[in-house]
Description:
The complex is a heterodimer. Chain A has strands at 4-6, 11-14, 19-25, 32-38, 44-50, 55-57, 60-65, 70-75, 84-92, 98-101, 105-110. By secondary structure, chain A is mainly β. In chain A, the strands form two sheets. In chain A, strands 2, 4, 5, 9, 10 and 11 form a six-stranded mixed beta sheet that branches. A five-stranded antiparallel beta sheet of chain A has the order 1-3-8-7-6, with no helix packed on it. The interface between A and B is medium-sized, with 22 and 17 residues.
Amino acid sequence: RKEVEQDPGPFNVPEGATVAFNCTYSNSASQSFFWYRQDCRKEPKLLMSVYSSGNEDGRFTAQLNRASQYISLLIRDSKLSDSATYLCVVNMPAGGFKTIFGAGTRLFVKA
Amino acid sequence: NAGVTQTPKFRVLKTGQSMTLLCAQDMNHEYMYWYRQDPGMGLRLIHYSVGEGTTAKGEVPDGYNVSRLKKQNFLLGLESAAPSQTSVYFCASRNAGPTNNEQFFGPGTRLTVL
Lengths: 111, 114
């Protein structure tokens, strides 16, 4: 079983749609969680951290469910510019911090 | 403030050739990382460094060596390139400490080994 698993997609949605991605992680001792965004042929960039209480940044909402060991990302009112790959990232306390990146979920937003 | 830069951006090697990838950061970060990214797979850690003069193996270190002689630079060497090392290589850096975990990435180096 992979340490961090994501649905690879692609998700094809029209502009204005709401789309949700889930990510599961295997290590219950994982301590911090993030969503990164990666545009085609570009480097990953931090989209948002994920907090236990859930957090929102504009049209983006991230949630953490420790009991079920998954995190989610909800994008409301999708824009063309949201088209990208979304990486789920988990930090595990292994000899310092071990960062595990999911393989990513591809999103295409169409006009 | 350039952030994280990588040199070169593209490279084509023949099997058996060697090369060095350079990563530089101007954010005074303690930690630096080298990853490779292949289709359908997440970023995989090759080597990392928690400070000047220190390096450690990551998930996929075989066939690579690294050096961190200066805090701002992290070099990745391929001793004898193989086609399996065709990949996109990303360097990243971050502040030390668990409360500052954002990693900042360089633009990547696209390497093809023939």
